[in-house]
Design goal:
There is one protein chain. By secondary structure, the chain is of the alpha/beta class. Helix content is 38%, strand content 14%. It has two domains: 135 residues, Alpha-Beta Complex (Aspartate Aminotransferase, domain 1), CATH 3.90.1150; 242 residues, Type I PLP-dependent aspartate aminotransferase-like (Major domain) (Aspartate Aminotransferase, domain 2, 3-Layer(aba) Sandwich), CATH 3.40.640.10. The chain has a seven-stranded mixed beta sheet with strand order 2-8-7-6-5-3-4, with helices on both faces. Strands 9-10-13-12 form a four-stranded antiparallel beta sheet. A two-stranded parallel ribbon has the order 1-11. Helix 6 links the parallel strand 5 and strand 6. Helix 2 packs parallel to helix 7, helix 3 runs parallel beside helix 4 and helix 7 crosses helix 11. The chain is globular, with a radius of gyration of 22 Å. The structure holds pyridoxal-5'-phosphate. The site of pyridoxal-5'-phosphate has 14 residues, from helix 3.
Length: 400
């Protein structure tokens, strides 16, 4: 038996990540002695804050191969998605009113599009295949003369599936349509190069990459083409008038530092997370029948694993492994009883969607934790299946 790791084990890194101690250290002086307003132009306090903000802009730009002037600070990816989509919708209203997106986007994109539908915009929600990927021919056919925006995420937050963003970017360019990417899950984890991928707008969130909550950015392309946006928040004209409001200097410093660390460590870290993820998958699948991987394994974030365990309710499994923090595709905790719309979009049955668990392995997870989680999941699923007469009756097999 392995030694038990310190409990509880956090393995929900697609929901949020711990702040890296190096990030925290960089942030701390900006709460205390360097507390100036970055917009104060007439004293040392303001200059120091502005200097720090500009340094962070550079760190973010470097990670995604943009120019610092193309980075707009926001409160996170939700706000960035809103600014990108509503901002284009308003600025390009004369040109058209059609938006192309897809069924497995984050709610920050889907609900923003739904709101625009109320104001007379037309939205195409592309379906995805069983592996979670969109079909490029279908995507191409969805673009019309009145299409003003394409919004397709890079990596999915539930199943980790990575969309063919480079191919999408090529088609967008060919058709002359602005391309927005929700990259909250991918920036810092896998290479993102806005030039190579043909991206015009890109949403970033600090707390998904070991930075603080409540800080984020939107990349806005300034040439080939120059993207116009209408502001959503008016006020003092900060961030070139695109996002008014006093800048969250410590948060911005944290986001910048998080980007710098990711840039240096991404190659090594993604290799390690992929190995741990595959170890977790093999340790579970080799010991349990009727267990399925949701979403493509070939096109996937390194640390993500999403499994369905037939005959087991996801929430019962979560309660059975209550010293492990993961999340389930069963929405019993919310107002609805609907299972994950992402899994349903992959054509996964309602039962299997309800029986799913998302494992998000991150920077601070250890091999011991992975072994522990695999053991806990296997023993809990076996126990729950033994208690389930329906499962036992439906699947009579020797040896269980
Ligand atoms: C977390 C997440 C968001 C929202 O980001 P916040 O910074 O929490 O607002 C948007 N899209 C995806 C894909 C996410 O994973």
């Amino acid at each position: 038996m392995e030694m038990a790791p310190k409990l509880p084990v956090y393995m929900d890194n697609q929901a949020t990540t711990a702040v890296d101690p190096r990030v925290l250290e960089a942030m701390l002086p900006y709460f205390t002695e360097k507390y100036g307003n970055a917009a104060s132009r007439n004293h040392e306090f303001g200059w120091k804050a502005e200097e720090a903000v500009e340094a962070a802009r550079g760190q973010i730009a470097r990670l995604i191969h943009a120019s610092p002037r193309e980075i707009i600070f926001t409160s996170g990816a939700t706000e960035s998605d809103n600014l990108a989509i509503k901002g284009v919708a308003e600025a390009y209203r004369e040109k058209g009113n059609h938006i192309v997106t897809q069924a497995t986007e984050h709610k920050a994109v889907l609900d923003t599009c739904k709101r625009l539908e109320k104001y007379g915009y037309e939205v195409t929600y592309l379906p995805v295949a069983k592996d979670g990927l969109i079909d490029l021919d279908q995507f191409r056919r969805a673009i019309k003369p009145n299409t003003i925006l394409i919004s397709i995420m890079h990596a999915n937050n539930e199943i980790g599936v990575v969309q063919p963003v480079e191919e999408i970017g090529k088609i967008a360019k060919e058709k002359g349509v602005i391309f927005h990417v929700d990259a909250a899950q991918s920036v810092g984890k896998i290479p993102v190069d806005v030039e190579k991928l043909g991206i015009d707008l890109l949403a970033i969130s600090a707390h998904k990459m070991y930075g603080p909550k409540g800080a984020g950015a939107l990349y806005v392309r300034r040439k080939n083409p120059r993207v116009e946006l209408a502001a959503m928040i008016d006020g003092g004209g900060h961030e070139r008038g695109l996002r008014s409001g006093t800048l969250n200097v410590p948060g911005i410093v944290g986001l910048g530092k998080a980007c710098e660390i990711c840039e240096k460590e991404m190659a090594q870290e993604s290799e390690r997370l992929e190995r741990l993820r595959d170890k977790l998958k093999d340790a579970i699948l080799s010991r349990l029948d009727d267990t399925f991987v949701n979403g493509s394994m070939a096109h996937r974030l390194p640390g993500n694993l999403n499994l369905s365990f037939s005959g087991v309710e996801g929430d019962a499994l979560l309660m059975g492994i209550n010293d492990v923090a993961v999340s389930s595709g069963s929405a019993c905790t919310s107002a609805t009883l609907e299972p994950s719309y992402v899994l349903r979009a992959l054509g996964i049955s309602e039962d299997l969607a309800h029986s799913s668990i998302r494992f998000g392995i991150g920077r601070f997870n250890t091999e011991e934790e992975v072994d522990y989680v695999a053991d806990r999941v296997v023993e809990t699923v076996r126990r729950l299946r033994e208690l389930s007469p329906l499962y036992e009756a439906a699947k009579p097999r020797a040896g269980r």
